[in-house]
Records
---
Amino acid sequence: MTHTLTHSDGFGLLRLPTRIHFGNGAASQIAPLARELGRRVFVCCDPFLADTPQFERTCAELRSAGAVLQIWTEVEPELPVDSVHRAADAASVWAPDLVIGFGGGSALDLTKLVALLSSHGGRLSDYYGENAVPGPITPMIAVPTTAGTGSEVTPVAVVTDPGRDLKVGISSPHLIPRFAVVDPTLTRGAPTAVTAYAGVDAFVHAIESYTAEVRAPEWTEQLPVFVGQNRLAGLLAEEAITVIAANLVRAVADPDDEAARTEMAYGSLLAGMAFGSAGTHLSHAIQYPIGALTKTPHGLGTGLLLPYVLRGCRPDIDPALRRIGTLLGVAETGSDPALDAIRRIEQIVADIGIPASLAELGVRAEDLPDISARAAGISRLAGNVAAAKPIERIPGIVTAAWRGDHT
Ligand SMILES: NC(=O)c1ccc[n+]([C@@H]2O[C@H](COP(=O)([O-])OP(=O)(O)OC[C@H]3O[C@@H](n4cnc5c(N)ncnc54)[C@H](O)[C@@H]3O)[C@@H](O)[C@H]2O)c1
Ligand SMILES: [Fe+2]
C-alpha cells in the first residue's frame, strides 16, 4: 500500500539498533552477539524468568562463549528510582563491557538505565526528559519476553519517582539498544493479562505513530527524540497495524496459539520501531494520570482510551483512519470508512476484555478535570497528534471515555 503523508514534504527518520534478529530460536544469537561487544556482562533478568530453561540455556551459551556474568534479578514493577540506582551501583562495581536485558518492558527499561548510569554516573533525575543523555552508553542487547512495549528498539525508558505524581521518562537516541534479539518463543508463559495489555499497547503505539502530527524537521538543529509521523515510520506502522489486528484476539484467547504469538512479537517489534521516531500521543498522555490515580496497567489504559481519542480527533485524522480501515479490511463495507475503522478497533479492544469506560476503572466524575489538566500538561505527547487544537479536545475525550460513550 502506498503511504501518503498529509504534508507535501515527506520526510523520514528511523533510529534503530544496528542489528535486529527476529524469529523462533533467535535467542541462540545472544551469545555470539555478546562476544562481539566484550566479555564482562551485566544481565538484568526478570525474576520470574531467572530459573527458566530458556534463560539458563542463554547463560550457559554465554559462558561457553567466554563471558563472565553478573546476574541481577531485582526488577521491580513500575521501576522505582531507588531500585534502578541499586542495580546501577552493582553494575558500576562490575564494570561491564555490555549489559543484557532479558524480560518484559520493565527489565528492558532497567537495562537501559543501568547502562546509562554505569557510563555517565549521577542520578536518574539528571537525565529526565528529552536529549539529556550526554553521549553513548554501555552497549546493550535487549531480549524481550513480552510482546508489547517495543522497548528493545526504542529510545525511551520509564520510571516511577516517588517525588513526582506521574511516571517519568528518559528519552535519548543513546538509549537504543545496540542489538535486539526478538525470539517469540520466549513470550510463552506470559500471563493472559500481560499478553492482552502489552499487546494492545503495541496496537496503540502503531496507530498513534500513524496518526501523529506531521511536521517537517529543522534539519539544522538537534532533532527532538520524537519527530511525528513520517514516511519510514509509516511503513512499519502499517505492517504493525495489519499484523496486530489479525492476531491480538487470537493470542489472548489461546496461549498455545504459537502462530498468533509469533505474529504479536513481530507486530510489537514493528510498532516499537515506528513509535521510536514518530512518538505516541493522546492515549498515552491521558493514561499517565489515570495510571497514577487507579494503579491500573499502562496497556489497559491506553487500549481503553484509543477509540475515544480517535473519535475525538475526527475529522482531522480521517485520511489516516481510512488507510487504517483498508489495512483492517473494513474499508469497503460501510458508508463511512473512517468510522468503520474505529468500530473495528473498538471491537478488538472489547474482545480482549478491556473495560469500555474509565468509570469501570474506579475513576470518579470529580476526577475528570484534574485528569484532563495533567494530560494537557504532558505537552510533548498531547501535542503530537495530527489534529488541530489537541489540548482543547482532551476534556471531551476524557468525558466520553468515562461514560463509555461510543458515539
Ligand atoms: N521503553 C519503552 O519504549 C516502553 C514502552 C511501553 C511501556 N514501557 C514500560 O514497560 C513496562 C511494562 O512492560 P511489560 O508490559 O512488558 O510488563 P513487565 O515487564 O512489567 O512484566 C509484567 C509481568 O509479566 C511477567 N513476565 C514477563 N515475561 C514473561 C514470560 N515470558 N512468562 C511469564 N511471565 C512473564 C513479569 O515477571 C511481570 O510479572 C512498564 O514499566 C512501562 O512503563 C516501556
Ligand atoms: Fe505504551
Note: The pocket of nicotinamide-adenine-dinucleotide (ligand 1) is lined by residues 46, 48-49, 77-79, 103-107, 109, 145-146, 148-151, 154, 156-158, 186-187, 189-191, 194, 198, 201, 298 (CB under 6 Å).
---
Amino acid sequence: MSEDLDNEAGDEAESASGTERRSFILEASTGLLGVCLGVGPVIAGLWGFVFDPFRKRDLPSKYNTGSGDVKEGHYLVATTDSLPEDGTPQRFEVISDKYDAWNFIPRQPIGSVYLRKLPGDLEIELEDGSKKVLKKGEIDCLQTTCPHAGCSVSYDGNTNALLCPCHNSEFELSGAKRTVGGKDNPSPRSLDRLDTVLKPIADGDNMEIYVEFMEFYTGVHEKNPVS
Ligand code: FES
C-alpha cells in the first residue's frame, strides 16, 4: 500500500515537471515570436529611413531643366508662339520635380512668371544701376511675387498694369513701380526680372522659352536671391 502511494506521488511529480517544461517552452516560443514580429518592422523602417537617401541618388533630372545646352536652373515655361504680338503679358506656372533626401514628387508648380513679347524697345535698369535696352520682339520675364510681402501680382487689362491685391502696389508692364493718383505704393522695389534662354524647335520661328527661375527676398530694396 505504502509502495503504491509512493509510486503515485512520483508519477504526479513527473507529470507536473513535464507540464512546467512544456509551459516554459510554449512561453519562450511565444515571446520569441513576439520579439520577431515587433522588432522586424522597426528594423525595416530604420533600414528604409537610414538608407533611402542612398537609394534615391539615381533620380531623374529636374523637369525640363539643365538638358542639352540649357543650363541647370532654367525651366521650360512656354513657347514664343504662345505670346501675343501686342505685348500683353501672359502668366505661366513654373513646373519642376521636387525632391529631398527622402521624397520625390514629379512635376510640381514652384512659382509663376509673366512673359511678354516686347512690342517695342524697352530700356531697363540693371541691379548695378546701368541701363540696357531690350529690343522689340525680345521676351521679357517678370516674377509674379510682389517684392513688398510676397503676394502674387496679376495683370489688370483695364489699367494695363500688374496689381498686387494685398496692399495695392502697382507696377508697369516693364515691372517698374508706378504711383497713380498719389496712392501709396509700399513695394520697396520694382518687380524682379528673370533671365530667359530661347531654344529653337526644329525648323520654323517658334522657340522654347526657358526661364532662370528663382525667388528673391521681399521687403528689402535689394534684389537678393533666396538661396
Ligand atoms: S504684398 Fe504686394 S503690396 Fe504688399
Note: The two ends are 98 Å apart (CA to CA).
